[in-house]
Structure formats: structure tokens, C-alpha cells
Amino acid sequence: MKVKVVGAGLAGSEAAWQLARQGIDVELIEMKPKKRTPAHSSDLFGELVCSNSLRGAGLENAPGLLKQELRMFGSLIMTSADENRVEAGGALAVDREGFAQGITRRIRSHPRITVVEDEVTEIPEGDVIIATGPLTSDPLADAIGRFFGEGSALSFYDAAAPIVTFESVDMSRAFFASRYDKGGADYINCPMDKETYTAFRAELASAREAEVHGFEDGKVFEGCMPVEVMARRGEDTLRFGPLKPRGIFDPETRKSPYAVVQLRRDNREGTLYNIVGFQTHLAHPEQKRVFSMIPALEHANFVRYGVMHRNTYLDSPRLLDRFYRARKEPRVVFAGQMTGVEGYIESCASGLYAAINLGLRLRGRAPLELGSFSAVGALAEYISGGAESDSFQPMNINFGIMQPWDGGKMRKRDRYRAISERSLEKLSEILKERKGDLDEDNH
Prior knowledge:
Oligomer: single chain
Structural class: alpha/beta
CATH class of the largest domain: Alpha Beta
Largest sheet: 6 strands, antiparallel
Distance between the termini: 17 Å
């Protein structure tokens, strides 16, 4: 038995790993280093092209639950994330290079995984998982379009935030504190008074954007909106968004700033910080000019500017089943953001679940049926029919797409934790029953 996995991002790497764990040989085809997308800067697998945060870590939030479920499945992505964690308060953030190196090292050293460095331009024959992500190359995107037929794909635009060096941040005009009064003092906070903020917002709203064919505000995914688009939406949009000063107090004045820009550590050494929530499509000189208006970043050294790129995803409720298989031809399986799951860990979860069930089918075993009681299952249910096709949008994991709590009234935070505990308990029982099916390879 052999399966081809196309793409070595988070979903593809996880899929290859889970198939190999079941004793199935994998040919992992990755176009880097032969060809890169505009958003990639490394030849490593599992490269994080936007934020280095995998979001909340606690069980009172859905991302925290999803990460714990993935750990229970022996997720490659979560193993590397936990090994390369950097301090980020209540979130799980990683040293992005160490994280990708850990994934790459394990994939390349696994005896059942063969890496092929080549670009795929047609859907391969045989059993295949296509996990080429939201930046799928045009030839393969065209082939997928032909496979499904007219109107099969949608698209939106996504953005990545800039990164600055720690030594270039003026700490006399910044201070360390938590994010929204959660966790430790892991974020650099760059306060702004009303006059400074007003001038900054005005310049940001009118700054020159880089050219991207077909870009318009209406196509921007609300969960990853460029900061300049938010600036155009009103005087206080940013102050109630990424520049929200809630729970933050300047240690000098003991007062909450009018607005605050936060920086999050981007590597283990703490030499690099990304500007939280500042995904942007501004031209690079404009980013330097406008972001330097933030007092603490007046002399900041930008090691990476923000970039804007097209994301493509399938009309999955119409095209895919709850195991991420093409309804018209189940040998073809999709995973990752192209299926309409949004986010790093969601992409990982789709690759994991798709690969587990493909492996079980090839080995003549019953499928692993995870309903919406679990975060992993809820994502699969959402993309395969939990959303109307004519209004389908990429979705992060959230408790709203999971099985509701039926254990009586309680506070929201307690209810969410109860949903998480219910999921983990039930999932633990299922994994005990299916252990022999899910981890046959004793390498």
C-alpha cells in the first residue's frame, strides 16, 4: 500500500505522519525548494507564513481543546509545537524555525516516508491526499477545477504581519505586560496617546498598498483582516481590535493607554517579535514609514514586512464528505486550508483526520467516526455540510460548531470547559477501543 501526499505544510506533514504510523508507505511530494509561493521564505516543512501563535492553550477555549485532542492522536505538529514553545501568556506560540525544523527532521527520517521534491500539476493516480494549502500553484489549482467542474473553488485574501528585532524596540517607550490581563508579562506593549493614535490611524488608512490583481476589501477574510482595512472602517475600529488596551496599564502612569500596539515573541531566543494583529498589504516603504509612527517602533528594524496573498478554498459542503474525500471520487482526499478550515491547528486536524480514515479504509478497517462532540470531528462536519454551500466561508474551530452542552445552566467559561472535558473523556474511550487500528507501525 502506498499513498501520495501532495504538499508538506501543516496538513500534508501531519497526513504523511499519520499514514506512516498505520504502517502505510507514503510518497510526500513538495515543490520546495524547486518552487516557492510568494509567502514562503524557507525550504522547511510545516513553515508558518503568518503568525507564530497557535492561539489559546486553555480548555475554556476551542483552540485549546483542539490542540489537546491532537496530542491524544500523537500529532506530529503538536509534538514539534510543544518542543518549541515560546512564552506568550495564555496562548501557545512557537519558535517558527525550530518548529519547522522539528517537523522536517521527523518526516525525512521516517523509514516509511519518501520525500519527492517536485511540483504536481495534475491530480495523481491512485490514493492521494492533496494538501497544497491556500496558495496552491496555478497549474494544480486548474487541474482541481477541472476535476470538480465549474464553480468548484472560491477565494479570499489573507495577510501576514511584520517582524521586528527586539533590540530595535525603544523600551523606554514600551513595557512588558500580558495580553488582555491573561498569563505572564510576555508581550511588549507600545502605548499611544490620543493625538498619536489619531495621526497614526489617518496615515495608515491612506497609505499606499502593494499591487495585487483583483484585491478589494470585500474579499478580505474577516478573521485575518489587513490593519489598513480596519483603519478605514472608523476612528475606533483599531482601538476595539488589535490596539485594544483592555487590562493593560502603563507601569509609569498606572493608567490604561488610549491605544496599545502589542508585540509577541517570534523565536525562542526572544530576538524577534511580530506585531500582533498587523497583517498588512501596504507597500514595504509605507510599512516602514507608517509603523514607525508608533513611538516605541520609531527606529524599529523590520526583518520581514507584511505580505498579502490570495487564498483559495473549495466549495467543500458540495464537494467533500465528512472524511474530506471527494464525493465524486473518494480515492482523492483533500486536507488543510483549501477545504475551508481556517488556521494552523485546524489545518493540522484536517490532515490528521483525513489520513487516519484513508489509512483505515486501505487496511480494511472501519472508519473512525468523530461527530461534533469533538473539535476534530466538528471541523469535518462543518466543511462537509454543516454550512450552506452558497454562504460557505473558512472557519476556525469554535464551540458554536460543536455539539451543544446539555448539562444544565452554567457560566459560559464553565460551560466551555465542560464541553472540552466531555470531548476529551469520550475521545479517550474511543482511542482505547481503536488503539490497534490507529498505531500499527512500531518503528
